[in-house]
Amino acid sequence: MKLIKAWTGDLDRAYELFGKFQADEHGFVNDAYGLSRDEFAQYMRKVEDMHAGRNLPEGYVPATKYILVNDSGDYVGIFNLRHRLNDRLREGAGHIGYGIAPEYRGRGYATAGLRMILVTALAEYGIKEAYLSVNKDNPASLAVQRHLGARIDHDNDAEYFTRIRITEPGAMPEPCRDPGKDGACG
Hints:
Elements: E1 2-5, H1 11-18, E2 24-25, E3 28-29, H2 37-52, E4 63-69, E5 75-82, H3 87-90, E6 96-100, H4 109-125, E7 129-135, H5 139-147, E8 151-155, E9 159-165
Antiparallel strand pairs: 1-4, 2-3, 4-5, 5-6, 7-9, 8-9
């Protein structure tokens, strides 16, 4: 399993993956929702700019969108890593957002991808504690975060705001490498 920067992947396969998510699904915001194939190609250029910190909209920080690719080469999820926080992110979405395509949910991909993103956050951006948010109507995502050591810092009517202290890769829980259709490791 691996994470690839979204703009470096196969554009058609990325377009198909992004098309599997609504504009806002349980708190996972998909800015590419409803875009045509040509608009999506332009969007990927903006995603690359955001990674480099170029042409950022007011209130945004540099961020990298990744695609989670399983060992069979399937595009199974999207992970967004914000390189740093501002006040809005510190009290909101935090460092990381993620979504797994519907047909791959419940198989351990979110846990595996989140673990990889946490390792990347520490190694590439020096983030030692990741801030995340999760909608209260998404207990599966909260369970993923808790499996990797998240604690609930605070909440509001709709969301929990969690923190995960990031340790060296060998000290973090190892998720299943490539779960089968039933979610079991084989």
